[in-house]
């Protein structure tokens, strides 16, 4: 079934591309729309016979390099490339090694719209990329934090306040390590991730010990308990969702049941925020320098 689906998928994608779109001459008349098999093979750098076998649904298992070459030749978007991999190899397409995209303007707007729900965006190595003012009220003043330290793994292991702020610090720390492990699988050659892991290993014996467990963790739903310097203990539910069009950008939100003590604490934090757009926390001992 998969080979037949692959054959049909390739034929339909080939038919939609005109020769001029691929930089090929268009003077001769064609009996069918789109590219010829031999032209796709030439553009992908594979033999015409091998490509014909793919389109005929023969039992072949193309390599990743062949699939990526076909994806480029047929001008696939990310969804089509992933579908190609699943049909040909029964596995998702590996991420394309490229510069990480910026946080989309619509996502930044969403952060502002849902305030006073604390929300922020992380990448795979737990860099905080964008946030709303309520996130700074609940956590730390990301605006005032040096960019190199605007990372939740760094905060967890290197900032002494984290050990009292997170009531279950050990659990949070292990989750952070598991997420970093996952990031190394997604982008194994990323130098910034390697540098962060090296720094944390140098500074924390717990990190070195737990890192060797090789636990992994992706986005999910759960609950965290905080001991906030202004409102005391509060337990919040979090949702962590992978953002479309990215390899590892995650949107995190924190909420509490209506009428609960935790929601009352959030309401106090929201009311106590300065009216500035940056929303700095009033307690200077909690602002990161």
Distinctive features:
single chain; 289 residues; alpha+beta; 5-stranded antiparallel sheet; 13 helices; 5 strands; elongated; disordered C terminus
SSE topology string:
HHHHHHEEHHHHHHEEEH
Average pLDDT value? 87
| Dominant shape | elongated
Strand order of the largest sheet: 2-1-5-4-3
Say how many strands there are: 5
Number of helical segments with 4 or more residues:
13
The unreliable regions are 276-289
How large is the radius of gyration? 25 Å
The level of helicity is 40-55%
| Strand-residue proportion | 5-15%
Structural class of the helices, strands and pairings? alpha+beta
Measured between the Cα atoms of the first and last residue, the distance is: 60 Å
Q: Major sheet: size, sense and barrel closure? A: 5 strands, antiparallel
Describe this structure in words.
- This protein is of the alpha+beta class and 289 residues long.
- It is 45% helix and 11% strand.
- The protein contains 13 helices and 5 strands.
- A 5-stranded antiparallel beta sheet has the order 2-1-5-4-3.
- Strand 4 and strand 5 form a beta hairpin.
- Helix 11 crosses helix 12 (205-211).
Task: Note the topology.
Elements: H1 2-16, H2 37-44, H3 48-55, H4 64-73, H5 78-89, H6 105-114, E1 119-122, E2 128-131, H7 133-138, H8 152-158, H9 162-165, H10 169-186, H11 191-203, H12 205-211, E3 221-228, E4 232-242, E5 250-255, H13 261-272
Antiparallel strand pairs: 1-2, 1-5, 3-4, 4-5
Helix pairs in contact: 2-3, 2-4, 4-5, 8-10, 11-12
In short:
This protein is of the alpha+beta class and 289 residues long.
């Amino acid at each position: 079934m998969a080979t037949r689906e692959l054959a049909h998928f390739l034929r339909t994608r080939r038919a939609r591309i005109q020769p001029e779109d691929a930089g090929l001459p268009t003077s001769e008349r064609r009996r069918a729309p789109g590219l010829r098999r031999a032209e796709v093979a030439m553009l992908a750098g594979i033999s015409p016979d091998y490509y014909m076998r793919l389109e005929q649904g023969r039992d072949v298992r193309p390599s990743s390099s062949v699939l990526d070459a076909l994806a480029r030749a047929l001008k696939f978007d990310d969804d089509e490339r992933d579908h190609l991999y699943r049909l040909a190899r029964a596995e998702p397409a590996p991420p394309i090694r490229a510069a990480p995209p910026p946080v989309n303007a619509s996502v930044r707007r969403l952060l502002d719209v849902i305030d006073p729900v604390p929300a922020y965006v992380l990448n795979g190595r737990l860099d905080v990329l964008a946030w709303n003012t309520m996130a700074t009220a609940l956590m730390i003043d990301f605006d005032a934090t040096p960019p190199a330290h605007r990372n939740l793994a760094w905060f967890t292991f290197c900032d002494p306040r984290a050990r009292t702020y997170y009531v279950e610090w050990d659990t949070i720390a292990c989750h952070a390590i598991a997420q970093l492990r996952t990031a190394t699988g997604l982008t194994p050659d990323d130098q910034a991730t390697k540098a962060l892991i090296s720094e944390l290993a140098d500074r924390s014996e717990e990190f070195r010990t737990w890192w060797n467990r090789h636990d992994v963790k992706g986005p999910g739903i759960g609950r965290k308990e905080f001991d906030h310097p202004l409102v005391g203990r509060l337990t919040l539910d979090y949702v962590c969702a992978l953002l479309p069009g990215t390899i590892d950008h995650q949107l995190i939100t924190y909420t509490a049941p209506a009428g609960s003590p935790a929601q009352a604490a959030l309401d106090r934090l929201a009311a106590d925020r300065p009216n500035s757009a940056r929303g700095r926390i009033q307690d200077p001992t909690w602002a990161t320098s």
